[in-house]
Structures are given as structure tokens and as C-alpha cells.
Design goal:
Helices cover 76% and strands 0% of the residues. It has 132 residues and is mainly α. Helix 2 crosses helix 3 and helix 2 crosses helix 4. The mean pLDDT is 82.
């Protein structure tokens, strides 16, 4: 009986979170991409290559863990370099985003959100059997 109750409890928790875990941001045509964080800038420039050299046969999960450990152990001077790069990229993104919004980006974003909502509605109607 206790096992059954645990199973019911697990099922309820799992079914509530199954659709709410991943939320993909709506992107409109021509919308500038957000800049990478300082960690990802470092990872792409030197972190991943160094971790792969040290562990050539390791799976991607192990490489990712090693990269995280390396980033946490990195000196302040090196981190500052990538944080500065991130600040520059963020400033450029904010400027590009303002220009994009001024050139009709707001309408494009509203249209993209509307299309995404329409797709979601169709998908949920199909899943529940409420076809129009």
C-alpha cells in the first residue's frame, strides 16, 4: 500500500512538470541573438579544447564536468578577460536590438508570438481530441 502511494505521488509530481520544464523563447525573423556568457566565450575559445586534450576518450558529459571545474579554478585575471568580452558583446547586442526594434522588430515579434501560440493551440487541441 505504501509503495502504491509513493507511485501515485511520483506520478502526480511528474505529470505536473512534464510540459512546464522547457520554455523556448520566441524568436522573430532577423532578431539579434543574445550574447554568450563569459563562461561560454571561454569554453569555445580554450576550455573545451583543453579538456579534450586532457581527457581524449571522455564522453561529452565528462568533458562538460571538467570544463566546469576548470572554469571555477580559473584565475581572476583570465576570467576578467572573458567578462570584458561579454560586456562588449552585450553592449553590441543591446544596440543591435534597439535598431531592430526601431526597424519594425516589435511587429515581427508580435507576429512570431501569435504564430507560436497558434501552433501551441493546435497541438493541445490535437492532444485532447478537440479538432476544429
Amino acid at each position: 500500500d505504501q509503495a502504491y502511494n509513493c507511485l501515485i505521488h511520483f506520478y502526480k509530481r511528474f505529470s505536473q512538470n512534464i510540459f512546464s520544464t522547457m520554455v523556448k523563447a520566441v524568436r522573430a525573423e532577423g532578431q539579434p541573438k543574445r550574447p554568450m556568457s563569459s563562461y561560454f566565450l571561454w569554453l569555445n575559445e580554450e576550455g573545451r579544447a583543453t579538456a579534450k586534450k586532457q581527457n581524449p576518450d571522455a564522453p561529452i558529459t565528462e568533458v562538460s564536468k571538467k570544463c566546469g571545474e576548470m572554469w571555477r579554478g580559473l584565475g581572476d585575471a583570465t576570467k576578467k578577460k572573458y567578462e570584458k568580452m561579454q560586456e562588449v558583446a552585450k553592449a553590441k547586442y543591446e544596440e543591435d536590438y534597439k535598431v531592430w526594434l526601431a526597424d519594425g522588430g516589435e511587429e515581427a515579434l508580435k507576429e512570431a508570438k501569435k504564430e507560436t501560440q497558434t501552433k501551441k493551440d493546435k497541438k493541445s487541441a490535437k492532444a485532447t481530441g478537440d479538432w476544429a
